[in-house]
Amino acid sequence: MKRFALILGTFMAVVWLADRALLPQQGYQPEALQGVEVKPESLCYFPDNYVQSRERFRQLHTLAPPRYRVQEGLFKVPSADEDLTVDWLHLRSDAPRLVVLVSGVHGMEAPTGAAMQQLFVDMLRAGQLPGDFDVLMLHALNPYGFKYGRRATENNVDLNRNLDTNAALFGSDNQGYRRLRDFLLPQTPVNLGQWENRFFAERLSLQLLHDSRDAIQEAALSGQYQYPQGFYYGGDSFEPQQAFLQQLLTDKAAPYQSILFIDLHTGFGTRGETHFYPGNPATEQIKRDMAWVFQDYEMVWPSKASGFFPIRGDLVGFAGKLLAAEKRFVPIILEFGTMDSLATKGGVESLHRTMLENQGHFHGFQSAQDRAEVQRRYQEMFYPSSGRWRSTIVRDMIRIYPQVLERFQQLDGVRLETGHLNTTAMDSGH
């Protein structure tokens, strides 16, 4: 009987393995969003490519309400490609508040961020955004990544791990990444048909015998400064955007009392949901102001339970170091989920796609088909082609923008340190 059970078990295992080996290599697909109406007027916000998106951004000043004075500029990023620019638009009046919207600190995430910037200006023009505020927008902070379909810069640097006021950042040691290096960074051309990729989930399960899921996620996501050909590499020195940002943000923020700083991202989180990620606020005052402005939404604080982990060298942290000492500074990272990465299947697939893209960039592909499939999966992870997904993001932001701006307007009447609304100050106009 035992022998029969062993034979049967072996047979079933062989059948299962054969079935897995013959599966078409289309990759995991997140569940479709149900009950969402696809609206053509929403889809038109989403650009096809970097050049089209930049041209649209350069025309946004024509939509600005007449109360604003328009200032524009660009920063030419040093590159082998001489047509890579970070463009900015400043809509100025005499308002005491400034709203900053940044797209594309991760290049592949720029198209959705740029779409949300255009939506913001359309709503501003239509009188749908409450409050007295000025606007500063930065388009495609990582234009190389946007144009060439990468999350990182031309130097393979993750800008959101590279921004700080202190170069000591580059001495950070991610010991978990170091320990997992051989698993995370294959050194051969990508072959989707080989067993390492067909059975990636099983390989990861074996890795979990040595490292917990949280340990692997934290090691992979928090950033690393040791391996220039690894993903989430923070660099060994500042990228050119750091000095540009430091000067622009310091100069443009000078006249304002309060700053709402919105960093637009895609990829992480539940598909079709907008996650409010606060980063790592430097002071309790910033936390209190964030709690007020975003009180209508659940903020996802870094923790093992949330799946969001603290990172170093991030944009909102950098902006806070530049501005928070003299301003009421309210930062937020808006993360538009694409892959259900908080669930096991989505999380495993997100890691695999990241590894494959990085592996292919540095070590090539076994075939043109492998290249095309890896690039397709990678783009879908950060810029889904789904009309339902895109319509959902526009629908949500049409609701979110006015609510957040209303709370930001009220912040002047919220007493410092207590976080309580000072109705007397509001009524008296102070």
Automatic annotation (TrEMBL):
<dbReference type="Pfam" id="PF10994">
    <property type="entry name" value="DUF2817"/>
</dbReference>
<keyword id="KW-0378">Hydrolase</keyword>
<dbReference type="GO" id="GO:0004180">
    <property type="term" value="F:carboxypeptidase activity"/>
</dbReference>
<keyword id="KW-0121">Carboxypeptidase</keyword>
<dbReference type="InterPro" id="IPR021259">
    <property type="entry name" value="DUF2817"/>
</dbReference>
<keyword id="KW-0645">Protease</keyword>
<protein>
    <submittedName>
        <fullName>Zinc carboxypeptidase</fullName>
    </submittedName>
</protein>
